[in-house]
What we know:
alpha/beta; Elongation Factor Tu (Ef-tu), domain 3; Rossmann fold; 6 helices; 12 strands; binds flavin-adenine dinucleotide
Amino acid sequence: MTDKNKRFTKGIIRKREDLTSDLWKVWIEPGEKFNFDPGQYCTVGYKDIERPYSIASSPDEDLIELFIELVPKPLGNLTPLLHKLNVGAEITLRKRPKGIFKFQSQFKNHIMISTVTGVAPFVSMIRSIDFKNTDYKIWIFEGASFIDEFGYSNELTSVSKTNEKISFTPTCSRPDDPKNSSWKGVTGRVNKIFSSIYDLENIEKEDTILYACGHPDMVSDVEKKYSNKFNFIEEKFWKP
Length: 240
Ligand SMILES: Cc1cc2nc3c(=O)[nH]c(=O)nc-3n(C[C@H](O)[C@H](O)[C@H](O)COP(=O)(O)OP(=O)(O)OC[C@H]3O[C@@H](n4cnc5c(N)ncnc54)[C@H](O)[C@@H]3O)c2cc1C
């Protein structure tokens, strides 16, 4: 086995769902069993360009589900190529998942803050946690400029209605844009609104972990304001 074969397997795109012209979900069948922990990412490659992508599926699912945003040319390198790939196309996948941005089971309260595709690791966590016999309380916040960018809104709203331990708050940062005219939910940037909605004074800090994932400016802002108040972990999707 060559060194490359030891590190890589192939991935076949089995399903694709476009949410907008620059946001899509893709389901990949790995060439071999792909074990990971909820919250981790996989490394996807095409034509020798590789990038990390947080996994939205749970480890129990056969296909690896990703939620990807197109960074158009000339800035973006891999996403303009991935965006052209349809069902049946082959990509490469590093065999090892990576990342320490995982569900922190030692805490009772979990506040998860994300922008758009940054919700992916939280979806994986929610799909994986066995809520029976636990007293976890989970608050998921997702910010987006446009309401069609909330890729997991149906799933997370539905799960929050049937499980009192989970709350989901999507917030639209551009409510005045005509594209968002039907929005009746929370408005404002996610890094600003979560503290006003969630009574931060009323929780035990040592029982609480704050996760922030996605846009680097949002993550940095949350980090600056809250990392000395709560246990905190972060995943920035790119360098600003
Ligand atoms: C741990 C980790 C997990 C990630 N998970 C996801 C995920 O689940 N979904 C996802 O879509 N991306 C995710 N990313 C980002 C992803 O790895 C790529 O960087 C992104 O898809 C752009 O790839 P590219 O090759 O097209 O552009 P690149 O060549 O990587 O980027 C070129 C430049 O574009 C800017 N940039 C990169 N991404 C964005 C963006 N989204 N919006 C605006 N500017 C950007 C940066 O300034 C960068 O220098 C993750 C990144 C990390 C580090």
